[in-house]
Amino acid sequence: MNQLSLIRIRAAHLKDLHGIADVLTDSFHSREGWEGWMRPVFRLGIYEDMRTRLREAKPSSAPGAGYVNGGGTPYYACLVSVLPRSGTVSDVPEETVVGTVEIGVRSLELWIPGASPQIYVSNLAVAPAYRRQGVASQLLIACEAIARQWGAHDLYLHVLQDNRSARRLYFNLGYRLHRVEPSLISWVLRRPKRLLLRKPIK
Ligand SMILES: CC(C)(COP(=O)(O)OP(=O)(O)OC[C@H]1O[C@@H](n2cnc3c(N)ncnc32)[C@H](O)[C@@H]1OP(=O)(O)O)[C@@H](O)C(=O)NCCC(=O)NCCS
Predict the structure, then answer these.
(1) pTM check: above 0.85
(2) C-alpha 170, offset from chain centre
(3) pLDDT band per the 50, 70, 90 thresholds, residue 184
(4) In a domain, 16, yes or no
(5) How many domains does the chain have?
(6) What CATH number should be reported for the domain holding residue 138?
(7) Nearest alpha carbon, ligand 1 atom 23
(8) CA 71 to ligand 1 center in whole angstroms
(9) Angle of the 39-56 helix axis to the 17-28 helix axis, nearest 10
């Protein structure tokens, strides 16, 4: 059977934290050079950040809650793509986290007093061994479903100008440039610019 057909998307639980931290660390930090040496520190930081957010968003058992973690924090969800681990014998299925994404609410126009916060996607990552199989696309489509459930009209996310793979993914799914974020630091240090993308979902 095709491995991809076994992958499913669900709301993240605290038990997924190690898997999520591994996927995010592998996706956003190199294993080479100084980043390789600092890897345990980066991983711990990611783990603790995620733990705080997941604890605040206790999984909801309400019928029809879908992917949304619900409970404590409204308008926050962390999703995982999971693959059943072969050889599982216990009643509780063991799963490997192969991808993750968060969706929440963020103010995108901090300089405009009273500007309403928008639904914002962040921390999208897929484990290197599972890329180019549609995992990220599925996670983003699940985010759209959540945003519609919340009554949103648009979805926003940031991507770095030099992240060609992510930019192509977003473009294919209908995200378009909303604005280039002004940043003195990236101008001075010649760092890639942050692009704010938007997708209308209604
Ligand atoms: C970007 C990322 C999330 C894509 O995950 P993925 O599961 O491989 O993406 P998908 O399989 O859904 O890709 C869908 C489409 O996006 C584009 N795409 C994805 N990865 C690509 C790559 N490495 N090169 C070129 N195009 C790519 C392709 O058009 C692809 O369709 P195709 O495979 O039919 O050509 C993954 O590479 C990753 O985790 N990168 C590191 C973290 C990151 O950059 N996150 C985004 C932060 S903004």
Answers:
(1) yes
(2) 13
(3) confident
(4) yes
(5) 1
(6) 3.40.630.30
(7) 165
(8) 31
(9) 130
